[in-house]
Design a protein that fits this description.
Its EC number is 3.5.1.108. Its cofactor is Zn(2+). It holds the Pfam family LpxC. In the C-terminal section; belongs to the thioester dehydratase family. By secondary structure, the protein is an alpha+beta fold. It folds into three domains: 229 residues, 2-Layer Sandwich (Ribosomal Protein S5, domain 2); 63 residues, no CATH class; 139 residues, Roll (Thiol Ester Dehydrase, Chain A), CATH 3.10.129.10. It has ten helices and 24 strands. Strands 11, 12, 13, 14, 15 and 18 form a six-stranded mixed sheet that branches. A six-stranded antiparallel sheet has the order 19-20-22-23-24-21. Helix 1 packs across helix 2, helix 1 packs across helix 6 and helix 6 runs parallel beside helix 7. The longest helix is centred in the middle third of the chain and has 22 residues.
Amino acid sequence: MNVKQRTIKAPVSVSGTGLHTGQRVTMTFNPAPENHGYKFRRVDIPGSPIIDADVDNVSDTSRGTSISQNGATVNTVEHVLAALVGLEVDNVLIDMDGPETPIMDGSSIQFVDVITETGLVEQDADREYYHIPYNIHYSEPDRKVEMVAMPLDDYRFTCMVDYNSQVLGSQHASISTIGEFKKEIASCRTFCFLHELEMLLKHDLIKGGDLNNAIVVVDKDVDQEELNHLAKLFNRKDISVAPQGILNNIELRHQNEPARHKLLDMIGDLALVGVPLKGHIMAARPGHAANVAFAKKIKALIKKEKSRKQVKTYDLNAKPLFDTVDIMGMLPHRQPFLMIDKILELTKSHVVGAKNVTINEEFFKGHFPGAPIFPGVLQIEGMVQTGGILVLNTVPDPQNYLTLFLKIENARFKSKVVPGDTIIYVCDLTAPIRRGIATMKGVGMVGDRIVVEAELMAQIVKVKETEA
């Protein structure tokens, strides 16, 4: 049974302080239409620019994940996105009157609570998952980061952290399905080491920091004078080190809360892939930069597979619109320079031609005879001739006209073509023909592989004009 997309029933707001900016911000979750995805809107900026929650918009990962688009930025998006993924919400528009999401208690639980309270509504469109097709690996050997996404008909996470710390040691966290997020992961707070906290405070980098929104791991010997100094900075009567090796500002909600929070961050960062995933994500020592790089790798694979699915296949045994004799009636080219054999489709803006590449082609006598490869320049010529049929089809008596190509740009050769291959050329007008000038995009395919592509510009002229 297909799963339907979901949005929230009504707008709901939360307010708090940004961890790094220290600015007070109100964030409002709004219902959004089908296939909208997650978007942020900076209502405090003229024009209220929108920032898509997309991995291609990531602008910084140094102290959380920031995204930027349309001249606007939103900082620390991962806890908010994790809440949406964890509740399996598909479409939300998030209004913000400041540059950074509120840190709240350092976890996702308060976002989860307000969204749960307002309720969810099912939409008409099906949720389109991306199923991890095979093991996808990512690693950073210098940081000992290892990540892999494996096929699974669910969304499962396993996370291991190891900070070479006597306090934390090695920790593991996992959920077997995304439905466990709310209970097992959402309330797990961010953490930092005491030496990191001191550095951040020294450089005024956590202006909204409060000992209520982070677990502080004490990874060094600390004297009472330093504890008194921290107490003063955070307006506390006193601070001490708890038996678990953390400051006594808070009690751990889980023995492995830091590892669970790293898992939370992974869920939020991988939301930036842009589609719900089905797979088992395993990671050792993940961080925002690695999460984002991994998300980009998955998105690139999705994009590649999508482009392949959009490639149309053609029946080469079907009767063509134009055979070779018909083509020679329109084009002045003759063997050995006629580079198309058939026209399979033809409209006012679109043409499809075919070229069978055989070993007895004249040019193979001199072009790598020991390892014959169809020359790239002749691939472009076949594309040009196919495009010529398209533009000549727009004039009466095409035999009285020539197509002169004025420009070829952004030509790319993506895969070699060898004897036995059949190239399918597809050319589409990119703008209406004006004053005899045509611009088009051409693609050459062998099977489902794109082997060549280019942007073309041509001019239609009468034969007498060329003779003059």
